[in-house]
Amino acid sequence: MSAKLTRVSGYDIYVERLDGLITKVNISLFCKEDQEFIRDWDRKETLKNDAIKVRFITDVEDKSGWEDNLRGVLKKTWKESYEIELSNESQLDLKNIRIEYLIFKFEDAIAAQKRSEGEVHYLTGETKVPVLKVRSKARASAKKFPMLETKLAPGFKWPGDGKKTSADEMRGIWIKVFVGEILATEVSKPENLMRKESWPTSKSR
């Protein structure tokens, strides 16, 4: 009988015959190799259908108070990045999850003439989640950027009347989530980041 797989539910396999009739059969009717093929097909189809949901959480550490360098400039320093929360919305335990990430930071220029002066930097990296069980969540951390905020002390000004304050800021994160070698989802914050930026190649990193 010629037929194609349409759905797997536990041990029940749904196949569509050439005449369009959908038939339910038990997976035990298939040989071991076919059963492995069916399970692999089911896993791939599951991953295509939003099996993994993603949420980003701002991650800040070592934030200082204002520090005076005794030269008229006050500064705050800290490290900042994102935590990546994955939710398994499927009915399968997911294993060997790899997250590739690209994080952007705007480094504000000190004493600049315009607010927009500065440079955008990026970090790339990879983190892993060994197992994500059915309907469970897991968090993974990414590398952190060093961050800086400055302001002039009262009575001081920059030569050329540059702006009195500066503040680095995070500009977003873009991730690719793989289950094994399958790309399960690709998400960015903000959503348009993937359209505005390019994923760096190995040569450009």
Describe, in plain words, how this protein is organized in 3D.
Strand 1 (3-9) and strand 2 form a beta hairpin. The strands form 3 sheets. Strands 4, 5, 6, 9, 10 and 11 form a 6-stranded antiparallel β-sheet that branches. The protein starts with a strand and ends in a 9-residue tail after the last helix. It is built from 2 helices and 13 strands, in the order βββαββββββββββα. It is mainly beta and 205 residues long. The chain has helices at 32-48, 193-196, and strands at 3-9, 12-17, 22-26, 52-61, 67-68, 73-88, 94-108, 118-132, 137-141, 145-152, 165-167, 169-179, 182-189. The model has no long low-confidence stretch (mean pLDDT 91).
What's the topology here?
Blueprint: E1 3-9, E2 12-17, E3 22-26, H1 32-48, E4 52-61, E5 67-68, E6 73-88, E7 94-108, E8 118-132, E9 137-141, E10 145-152, E11 165-167, E12 169-179, E13 182-189, H2 193-196
Antiparallel strand pairs: 1-2, 2-3, 4-6, 5-6, 6-9, 6-10, 7-8, 7-12, 10-11, 12-13
